[in-house]
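Researcher: Please generate the 3D structure of the following complex. Treat every line as part of one assembly.
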Amino acid sequence: MPSNDDILDIATAIFADKGFEGARMDQIAKAAKVNKATLYYRIGGKEALISAVLKRLFSAKVARLEQALETIDDVEERVRAFAATLVDGDHPEQFSAIMLREVAAGGRNLPDDVLPLMGRLVGALERTLSQGVDEGRFKPVSPFLTHMLLLGGCALYATNAPIRRRVAAQAPGVASLKTELPLEDVAHALADLLLDGIKKT
Amino acid sequence: MPSNDDILDIATAIFADKGFEGARMDQIAKAAKVNKATLYYRIGGKEALISAVLKRLFSAKVARLEQALETIDDVEERVRAFAATLVDGDHPEQFSAIMLREVAAGGRNLPDDVLPLMGRLVGALERTLSQGVDEGRFKPVSPFLTHMLLLGGCALYATNAPIRRRVAAQAPGVASLKTELPLEDVAHALADLLLDGIKKT
Amino acid sequence: MPSNDDILDIATAIFADKGFEGARMDQIAKAAKVNKATLYYRIGGKEALISAVLKRLFSAKVARLEQALETIDDVEERVRAFAATLVDGDHPEQFSAIMLREVAAGGRNLPDDVLPLMGRLVGALERTLSQGVDEGRFKPVSPFLTHMLLLGGCALYATNAPIRRRVAAQAPGVASLKTELPLEDVAHALADLLLDGIKKT
Amino acid sequence: MPSNDDILDIATAIFADKGFEGARMDQIAKAAKVNKATLYYRIGGKEALISAVLKRLFSAKVARLEQALETIDDVEERVRAFAATLVDGDHPEQFSAIMLREVAAGGRNLPDDVLPLMGRLVGALERTLSQGVDEGRFKPVSPFLTHMLLLGGCALYATNAPIRRRVAAQAPGVASLKTELPLEDVAHALADLLLDGIKKT
DNA sequence: TATGAATGAGTGTTCATTCAT
DNA sequence: GATGAATGAACACTCATTCAT
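Model: Done. Output below.
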């Protein structure tokens, strides 16, 4: 019998793939190998399932992020670690896909108690950037805009593989579409690209 | 009697708001003030409506983009114009929302004849960047990754206003969440942030 | 294709038999020979169906009642006509069953616009009784209590046939259970019983 | 741990309020503060619960009725006591509501062993009336119809308070709706109304 | 061309009941 | 005897789509 956590794993995968509106409770129950009524007994309904998935997803991401930054002193490394953590974990594209859809939906499904987590996400980068400024190594840039670039760039890259491949197959001219790099390297590269603009020369 | 283009306008707005799965044909017909059967008669069905919306959306965006770049010589200005065009138009958040959702969905709904448009989007930036390199003004950076950052940053910012406000209301500590700038200024700022890293010193 | 009125006929019969909670929309659709979705398209949902049935039921009863009283001058005859009308019509037990259940339910399902009809029901009897008093033929009795007796007695008798027969079969001793009279005779007898107490001697 | 009798108390209240079809085993278990599985273990299921409630309800009513009549000799007083007993007890509206619904349902849920109780209910009144005839005080009237009037009038009045108030609020014209008397006075008044018609002058 | 009406196949949810311990 | 967890079968309602006119 799958645990509630197993159910959330399955639901996360399906929500990432189909979106909240497109996902079917039947399908989730079947994929999780629990009776649909059991799914309702244990979780409580679609809305509760969505909330639980979002909460777990963002909690875990923020926890890993704060943990990662804890042990790193160098501000440049911190920025790189930030980007890397955005796309780490077992199914990095799930976090990205759900986050992108939820942003597009205006956060309609975000429970109030998940919002502070998003604040901590921005806050972590904000502190890193101001520390860099204090150390005389970073120019003073808008933390929120930097966050948008990094998060948007990482999330978009993490989820656009299927489109990229289709476009690449159709448009042999655009060379830059063809490279397939590990997500981790891409996060590093994206961070470096940004850092080049942020660092004081 | 609304024209097909009027219908696509309405459909675009609703798809941006609710997603393809969340949008209802009833609602679109009602909002467009056409009979539901007429909607089917003129457009052909939900899938056809989605295709038409996506095609028109990306055609228009690419057209405006290429037109904008046509008249600009300076490579830095071209990058800024690129960002600005990503968020211009009457309802910039609609393009962003639909694009983000579609990327998250793996491009499931993108008709084949829309794919070349995405290639042209990347291609336009790629040419600008390589021109900058040729002119000795840009470092050689990955055009696709740059594209991810710029597109992701702009689209995320263009759609995250509702969430940003909720987070800002709950987390008075994070100062950078509070600023509310016009989208076009933000696009400009994001481009500058990136340009700082791309430009040769 | 059955008309909406045909559907209400069927729904009334099923509601009378099973109660609102016990009736199933599937069953009503099937019995009315319309597709379930058609039932919803035409009526709007269970609550709307209940409201429509209640409204039509009480409208018709009050209309027939007021029409019947219109042409009768003699106050005793008016009381008898009142009782007779309570149990007239094609399926008198349906009105009685639905009314009894609804009273037991505290009028939970009675739409606001049906309430005035109930007022007219009581009002019609009230006017008749006070006319009888004015004419010096009736003692002054509480119209509402009289209404309770007459309505309760008629409705109970109109619906209790199945129980009465079962009890009669089991209890051969109770002679008065065995008589099976036409409903309209019973209404007449009930009215006479009451009139005996109301009439001035 | 609540006794089975406590459970039946709760079930009776909920059945009276919601009807058998509208009542939920979950709700009953929760209100009775027993585990749902315990409810099944101790009572046996919804049908058994309904049977138990009906049996206890009618047993108690008949017992109180026969006990009340036992000590009264005067036939008029007996009729008044009959009416009074119909609406006595802790929650008189519960008996009335359940009885009305069950009559409307054609006695579908009445177990065979409850039927004799209904016979004794009618029988008690029948004996009183024939005694009155024997004593030369009552006219010979149908005991069953008299029973219908008295039981219907009392039960209807005992349960229609919510509707009466709503109607009264909407129809200020109908004066007789406004009086709010104790149930026991009403029973007395209803009995008197009937007695006036039954008594020999 | 346009549309009011109709519908097969879902869709989220509930409920009486049963298990395993 | 008692119970937390599980479930098959409904159940009210919806939706993209199609007809008939």
